[in-house]
Write a structure and sequence with these properties.
The complex is a heterodimer of chains A (162) and B (561). Chain A is 24% helix and 22% strand. Chain A has helices spanning 35-48, 86-97, 112-120, 134-137; strands at residues 2-5, 8-11, 15-16, 31-34, 52-56, 72-79, 103-108, 125-126. An eight-stranded mixed sheet of chain A has the order 2-1-8-7-6-5-4-3. Chain A starts with a strand and ends in a 25-residue tail after the last helix. Chain B contains 19 helices and 21 strands. Chain B has helices at residues 6-27, 33-41, 65-78, 101-109, 143-153, 226-240, 251-258, 260-274, 283-290, 307-314, 316-325, 353-366, 389-398, 429-438, 442-448, 510-524, 531-538, 541-547, 552-559, and strands at 45-47, 52-56, 62-64, 82-85, 91-93, 127-128, 168-171, 185-191, 197-203, 216-222, 326-328, 334-339, 350-352, 370-373, 379-385, 413-414, 453-456, 470-477, 480-487, 499-500, 505-506. In chain B, helix 6 crosses helix 8 (260-274) and helix 16 (510-524) packs across helix 17. In chain B, 53% of the residues are buried. Helices cover 37% and strands 17% of the residues of chain B. The radius of gyration of chain B is 24 Å and the shape is globular. The termini of chain B are far apart. Chain B has four domains: 6-109, Sulfite Reductase Hemoprotein, domain 2; 127-289, Sulfite Reductase Hemoprotein, domain 1; 306-398, Sulfite Reductase Hemoprotein, domain 2 (Alpha-Beta Complex), CATH 3.90.480; 430-552, Sulfite Reductase Hemoprotein, domain 1 (2-Layer Sandwich). Chain B is an alpha+beta fold. The chains are: A alpha/beta (162), B alpha+beta (561).
Chain lengths: 162, 561
């Protein structure tokens, strides 16, 4: 998968499995599984594979993942449409409150003009929508050099520096 | 007023560059209309019936004379020589070309202004009391808190794609002039038993299709906890607000669906997690921002003037204006002057470039260079010495800005309606004109006294019809414009929603029906009662009976009762 990570375009080994029946066999390779599949096959997965990744969307209660965070190398946050902003809160909770150390990835309707906000909420890597120019999207990180609020990227609000 | 430092200026400058790039990408076909829409909306740019409409933010309604001159300049250079002041204390341009909007934003940035978050599903411009800082009934100045909220909410990374738009209002006075209870979040500055100042937090008020008066979820919040509490409310809303139906997506629906207790429980639980962290406001920061809103250099001998009283004695027009368009000031010898943007024949809230320049000059000369936009769509010169009032009035008259109608029947709130807006079912401005034409006798208007007519061209309620003493809602029936009237609404401390008068009425009859309602009021009123007081005492029936006379068959049924 081609993704933006650390403000660079890189290829990595992960692929997203969107639909997967809970009764299906465990897929091969480095796959990002639907969270419901993880819940249904947790014990098997823990035995079979060495690293794990799941994807969730705004409907998932982020609190349901918390006890398993240590097992996930990656959590992908799905934006079915860019204006569904629930995963921004998910990202902040996972990073700020639950101290998730793995890779937090945005997938789905991920566009250049959302990257600044996503990055600030603690999302580490971005799978830009396929029909969009990922090179162009890199510019988004330079849009703003000043931020008013504390968030996942800035520990203090700007006023503390005044 | 607040002055930008390097950080603030950098943010608006970078925003201009960003939007210029977005507009260029759209015009080059690299962004689809669907992808460009949320980006332009976050910059206040709508596509309307005839042209784009650009809404510019006026934080809590406060403008310097330099900023007002820039608004005039923009209307001249990029638009049709006028601008429209909105019910959210902002200003709108109805005719800019899309290609020029980045240049307009650059001009705005040069005077510390912007169009950030004036539309879109984000936190909008925080509104406040137009008499903030000078009102006699003020406990504390709300503007520093509005500015703190402005900075926190600007490009908030987590809350820029909310289920729906989000509006916050703050009032620091006993009398609510900011319609606090019909906002997504409303904040009243209050004092607790220990004498500390904090906030009474109201959540889930709103107008639109499903109007609610918001409940208080926390009667006292310490001011250091302001931002953490707002963040907790917004986080609960962002996670759980409905996104399946845009008409059910405002926070008022979530509060109502969960119930006030459960909603409050969720907010408090979230807040407990963050209240003592980095979100806690420093007193130092509160004091720093407060330092921008200090009193100007008032003349201690202002109250000694005798000319103001004498001019009122000798000039009836001036005294009519003084009666309606002045507001008491906390400093003796000073008044706040309301500049009426509701002259007969003018669309309510519109001002020409010449008028804006003129008002800016008058503000420099007579009011320490500041102007405030009111949520009733007028302008205020907040600090005028009483000795200057007569000459100021004469100068306002020169540009048709001294209509003596503040708070009267013709001081209507009115949305742009069918004449401009793509959503409207019916016209608002033509009804305003009809009302102005019928009620043109100044003595009659003064006799009727305080009354708030609020008019919306569709149920989205931009003209706040639900909370008008008389509310007028444009509807469409068989492709004709009709109007639904409500009576008895209020957006003030006694906020309540108007009661439906009866079936909607034809366009040509609106002013005549208002005439009948006023007749009932004049017949029934006691002593100093306003229209709203009389309505509350006698109820809707006498008004209903006058407008919709009972048919004989009903009278018979009544007689046999």
């Amino acid at each position: 998968m081609r993704v933006i990570k650390d403000k660079k375009i890189v290829d990595d080994e992960w692929s997203v499995i969107r639909d997967l029946d809970d009764a299906a066999p465990v897929p091969d390779g480095d796959v990002i599984l639907p969270f419901h599949y993880w819940q249904a096959n947790r014990e098997t997965l823990l035995k079979q594979a060495s690293k794990h990744a799941v994807w969730i969307n705004g409907d998932t209660d982020v609190e349901d993942l918390i006890s398993d965070l240590e097992h996930f190398s990656m959590i992908a946050l799905d934006f079915p449409v860019f204006k569904d902003g629930r995963c921004y809160s998910h990202a902040r909770l996972l990073k700020d409150r639950y101290d998730y150390k793995g890779d937090l990835r945005a997938i789905g309707d991920v566009l250049r003009d959302q990257l600044f906000f996503m990055h600030r909420c603690g999302i580490d890597s971005f799978q830009i929508r396929e029909d969009k120019d990922a090179e162009d999207a890199l510019n988004a990180f330079n849009d703003f050099t000043v931020r008013y609020q504390a968030a996942a990227d800035d520990a203090v609000p700007i006023y503390k520096l005044r | 007023m607040y002055k930008y430092d390097n950080y603030d200026q950098t943010i608006v400058n970078e925003r201009v560059a960003q939007f210029r790039d977005q507009t260029e990408r759209f015009l080059a076909g690299k962004l689809t209309e669907d992808e460009f829409r949320p980006l332009r909306l976050m910059n206040g740019l709508y596509v309307q019936r005839y042209a784009p409409m650009l809404r510019v933010a006026i934080p809590y309604g406060l403008l310097s004379s330099e900023q007002l001159r820039m608004l005039a300049h923009i209307s001249r250079k990029y638009d049709k020589n006028y601008a429209h002041f909105s019910t959210r204390q902002n200003v709108q341009y109805n005719w800019p070309a899309l290609e020029t909007v980045p240049d307009i934003l650059a001009d705005l940035a040069s005077v510390e202004m912007h169009a950030i978050q004036t539309s879109g599903n984000d936190i909008r411009n925080t509104t406040s009391d137009q008499f903030a800082g000078i009102a006699q009934d003020e406990l504390d100045d709300p503007r520093p808190y509005c500015e703190i909220i402005r900075q926190w909410s600007t490009f908030h990374p987590e809350f820029s794609f909310l289920p729906r738009k989000f509006k916050i209002a703050v009032s620091g006075a006993t009398h609510d002039r900011a319609a606090v209870k019909v906002h997504d979040i409303g904040l009243y500055l209050v004092k607790n038993d220990a004498g500390e100042i904090g906030f009474n937090v109201i959540v889930g008020g709103g107008l639109g299709r499903t109007p609610f008066i918001g409940p208080s979820i926390r009667p006292f919040l310490q001011k250091q906890d302001l931002l953490s509490y707002l963040e907790a409310i917004l986080r609960v809303y962002n996670r759980y607000g409905r996104r399946d139906n845009m008409y059910r997506a405002r926070i008022k629906i979530l509060v109502n669906d969960l119930g006030k207790e459960e909603f409050t429980r969720q907010v408090e639980a979230e807040w407990l997690q963050i209240k003592d962290g980095v979100m806690k406001l420093d007193q130092k920061e509160i004091d720093r921002v407060k330092g921008f809103f200090t009193a100007p250099d008032y003349d201690a001998s202002a109250a000694e003037d005798k000319s103001f009283a004498a001019e009122q004695e000798s000039n009836k027009s001036f005294s009519n204006w003084a009666k309606r368009n002045l507001f008491p000031h906390k400093v003796a010898g000073y008044k706040a002057v309301v500049v009426s943007l509701k002259a007969p024949g003018v669309a309510p809230g519109d001002a020409t470039d010449e008028q804006m320049d003129h008002i800016a000059d008058l503000a420099d000369k007579y009011s320490f260079g500041e102007i405030v936009v009111t949520h009733d769509q007028n302008l205020v010169l907040p600090n005028v010495k009483q000795a200057d009032l007569f000459v100021l009035w004469e100068k306002l008259l020169e540009k048709n800005l001294a209509t003596a109608n503040i708070g009267l029947l013709t001081d209507m709130i009115c949305c742009p309606g069918l004449d401009f807006c793509a959503l409207a079912n019916a016209g608002s401005i033509p009804i305003a004109k009809q009302i102005n034409d019928k009620f043109n006798d100044i003595d009659y208007l003064h006799d009727i006294g305080d009354i708030k007519i609020k008019m919306s061209g569709c149920m989205n309620a931009c003209g706040h019809h639900h909370v008008g003493h008389i509310g007028i809602l444009g509807v469409r029936k068989k492709d004709e414009e009709f109007y639904q009237l409500t009576l008895g609404g209020s957006s003030e401390s006694d906020a309540c929603l108007g009661e439906r008068l009866g079936p909607s009425i034809a366009k040509a009859e609106v002013a005549d029906v208002i005439g009948k309602l006023l007749d009932v009021y004049v017949e029934q009123r006691q002593e100093e009662e306003r229209f709203l007081d009389t309505f509350r005492r006698v109820g809707i029936t006498p008004f209903k009976d006058r407008v919709y006379p009972k048919k004989p068959v009903k009278e018979k049924a009544h007689a046999s009762n």
